[in-house]
Amino acid sequence: MTTSRKEQIVSLLESDPNDTFLRYGLAMELRKEASYPEARAEFEKLMRGNPPYVAAWFMCGQMLAEMDEIEESRTVLREGIEIARQQGDAHAAGEMGELLASLGSFGE
Questions:
Q1: What does DSSP assign to residue 51?
Q2: 81 membership: H or E segment, kind and range
Q3: Distance of alpha carbon 40 from alpha carbon 79, whole angstroms
Q4: Alpha-carbon distances, residue 72 vs 26, 37, 61, 77, 92 (angstroms)
Q5: Contacting residues for 61 by C-beta, under 8 A, at least 6 apart
Q6: In this structure, are residues 28 and 59 in contact, taking their beta carbons and an 8 Å threshold?
Q7: Tens of pLDDT along 2-41?
Q8: Do 59 and 92 touch, CB atoms closer than 8 A?
Q9: CA 96 to CA 103: how far, in whole Å?
Q10: 3-state secondary structure at position 2
């Protein structure tokens, strides 16, 4: 029997629940299988971590936009831009800014 990528990640997280890379991988696997509430919960853990994981804001914002949760996406992206700037990550802030700008005409 083949073990799925998600199952492998969950197993690894049992021994190291604070592994940022594994938690991000789990969030992405959940998103891929359209388990959006679970994916969002994993992204939230990363977003509220110490230090906050900047990529989680971008991916969560993108996922919310794909789900037509435009206002929530905007909120997440705005927060993410601020965190990215605080961490000196101009590239991530720029990517989130571009996504935020692209949402300008959607859902209004």
A1: S
A2: helix 70-86
A3: 15
A4: 21, 13, 8, 9, 19
A5: 73, 74, 76, 77, 80, 96, 99, 100
A6: yes
A7: 779 999 999 999 999 889 999 999 999 999 999 999 999 9
A8: no
A9: 11
A10: coil
